[in-house]
Amino acid sequence: MASPSHPVGDDVIPLREATGAWFRISLQTFGGPAGQIAVMQHKLVDEKRWIGQQRFLHALNYCMLLPGPEAQQLAIYTGWLLNGVRGGLVAGGLFVLPGMVALLALSAIYVGYGATDFVTSLFAGVAPAVIAIVVQAVQRVGKRALHHRALVGIAVVAFAALTFVAVPFPVVVFGAGLLGWLLSLRIPALRQPAAHGAADGPPPLISDDALHHELPSLRRSGGVLLLGAALWFAPVAAFAALAEATGTSVFLDQGLFFSGAAVVTFGGAYAVLAYVAQQAVNVYHWLAPGEMVRGLALAETTPGPLIMVVQFVAFVGAYRHPGSLDPWVAAVLASALVTWVTFVPCFLFVLLGAPYVERLRSNRHLTAALTGITAAVVGVIANLAVFFALHNLFDRSRTVDAGPLHVDVPLLSSWDPVAFAITAVALVVMLWRGWSPLRTLGLCAAIGVGLFVIGRV
């Protein structure tokens, strides 16, 4: 047993045993970050007793402060605690591998057969279900995050800034963190970490107050930063050369855009998808307006982080803008590049910061900034719900510009009664019956196919 008086070293458990456990966890990580974190909580804290409850939650709280998918970063962090750097690499890699393979196959099926009537009817059912899934995310995150009126105000301001004024997403995130810290100077409750109960059972291998042996140092940090940055950007440089040779800018555009997105994805996938969707649809034209929600529906059906939907965006965008390459080759290469630049930063951020984070357990200023960002995430996700509803419940929309206002509004005459009805069904089964996203997607897909069979869609 790891003792509070002794630091935690490498290989608290055998790496081979940990690898098997992480692989089994990776096959169960459906249902978004909440479900993924619940799986790790059950396996690592409650069942195997490898890590203490407070230690697990401390890691989660600070992974939420980092940009990127917090569930995968939590896997990297706990893998590092258990087996050092090797453990972090194994845990984080296995966490995304099954979903990456599955979504690559689904993206290929969508590109190859998405124009058929059957597949069209399938997506006519699942797209409204995704709207309900995002609405449920607003409800769940809001219930956890908005425990003070000031935080409700931050959420409302974030929603209005994105929806009506088109403030850039990174500005909203930075402003929310700054506002959370400033408000905490007057409202001490915003500086307090959430209280969590301790788990029952025998003592964990890594206790709540044991220190990791890997101390922070400038030498270590410099080495991790240089190696991580090289691994992060070397493929982008290689693909830039390929873009020059093939006469298409899609690889360079996607590599740079998603590298940038990787450092502003605070608050999980739902929070950044509005930003990705706006850029992919309106700026780069990789997707049509309704296709982002289809990609999200596919990502919801695969294990792993929901932000894996960027692989779908890359696949479809490169297939349509391949230059002199074969479209299928371009799509697969773009998928690999975007997956790499999206997830490599997660390893860099966690392995660089983990030794420092271990010694910042009681930092109230960081807690306050995280509280502000989490509150803003509620507004960001609500904006995503509006975006999806606009492009899936109505066939046409228009942009209204009036001074600082810049907002898309639907043409009410173009409303889709079938989409409205399926959305209502999805909201009922999720919010009132407690159905999971995967089960709801299955029901709505069946409704879409059923309507196709009887000739209604």
Automatic annotation (TrEMBL):
<feature type="transmembrane region" description="Helical">
    <location>
        <begin position="255"/>
        <end position="276"/>
    </location>
</feature>
<feature type="transmembrane region" description="Helical">
    <location>
        <begin position="296"/>
        <end position="316"/>
    </location>
</feature>
<feature type="transmembrane region" description="Helical">
    <location>
        <begin position="366"/>
        <end position="390"/>
    </location>
</feature>
<keyword id="KW-0812">Transmembrane</keyword>
<dbReference type="InterPro" id="IPR014047">
    <property type="entry name" value="Chr_Tranpt_l_chain"/>
</dbReference>
<feature type="transmembrane region" description="Helical">
    <location>
        <begin position="411"/>
        <end position="432"/>
    </location>
</feature>
<comment type="similarity">
    <text>Belongs to the chromate ion transporter (CHR) (TC 2.A.51) family.</text>
</comment>
<dbReference type="Pfam" id="PF02417">
    <property type="entry name" value="Chromate_transp"/>
</dbReference>
<keyword id="KW-0472">Membrane</keyword>
<protein>
    <submittedName>
        <fullName>Chromate efflux transporter</fullName>
    </submittedName>
</protein>
<feature type="transmembrane region" description="Helical">
    <location>
        <begin position="89"/>
        <end position="112"/>
    </location>
</feature>
<feature type="transmembrane region" description="Helical">
    <location>
        <begin position="328"/>
        <end position="354"/>
    </location>
</feature>
<feature type="transmembrane region" description="Helical">
    <location>
        <begin position="438"/>
        <end position="455"/>
    </location>
</feature>
<feature type="transmembrane region" description="Helical">
    <location>
        <begin position="224"/>
        <end position="243"/>
    </location>
</feature>
<keyword id="KW-1133">Transmembrane helix</keyword>
<feature type="transmembrane region" description="Helical">
    <location>
        <begin position="150"/>
        <end position="183"/>
    </location>
</feature>
<feature type="transmembrane region" description="Helical">
    <location>
        <begin position="118"/>
        <end position="138"/>
    </location>
</feature>
<keyword id="KW-1003">Cell membrane</keyword>
<dbReference type="InterPro" id="IPR003370">
    <property type="entry name" value="Chromate_transpt"/>
</dbReference>
